[in-house]
Model the fold of this input.
Amino acid sequence: MDVSQMKRRGAVVTGAGSGMGRSIALSLAANGMNVVIADIDKDAAERVCGEAGALGVESLAVPTDVSDLEQVESLAEVAYSTFGDIAVLVNNAGVNWRPFRATWDASIEDAQWMMNVNFWGVLHGHHAFVPRMRKTTDPKHIVNTSSIATLQPSPGHAPYAAAKAAIDGFSLAARSEFEIAGLPIGLSLLYPGVVRTRIATSERLRPIEQQAAQRNLVPWDSYTGRPADTGAENREFIAEQRLVTHAHQAIDPDWVGPMVVNAITESRPYILTHPFSDPIKERAEELLNSYVPAAASLTSQ
Done:
């Protein structure tokens, strides 16, 4: 989809009230797309809606909890009734947790919350929008936000990594289905590294009773000897530890939007915010070297 095919067509971005979602929505607007700003935070969605409108396009704020299928279906109804044609869907809304916690210290409720927003939110978006996208022959594109957590081990963050890995598997299958069926729908996976967003404060969005349960958690960093990443007092230390290589340097979310728009216009399947070459190469080499023919395995016993 080139830039000329984007102008005055509709785009929907979830989690667009701040951070990467805001950046993506404003970059699409800057390229002439009418945008629907979907976010669980109504006030944040309306602020970004105003910013997009100031760029000379039509914009609409729709408060949406992506973990609720009915709300996402309503989002699709409103988007199509307002703009008539949705050319770009960005399933970006996601949550994170602080402090990080070991698999044996995390609760079932922790994992369910992560999956409900991070994975089911993407699935709900796909379910609500793709049947409508299939009805027209104009080129369209979907972006699903994954994470560096699926490309390298993420200790203390297992349910988050699991939810994002589910997005990977689902997206790869869906992209192949689009191609085999001859549908004009591209699909990109966005792999953010360390981006300065509010996702670390996602616990504020949990039900009150679940927030209370987090107060007595054993933080993952208690097993590593590092201060827990729970507040501003430790932020400088944590930042110092994470900024060891360029691949982990924190970037401003405003950088991400142009990256995503570029990938959409070039129909690229992957969008990396950082140079993740080392963990990708290491994993690929381990996989390639892991096949041992059955006969050789038997011989070695």
Notes: The longest strand covers residues 185-191. Confidence is low (pLDDT under 50) at residues 230-246. The chain is about 45% helix and 15% strand.
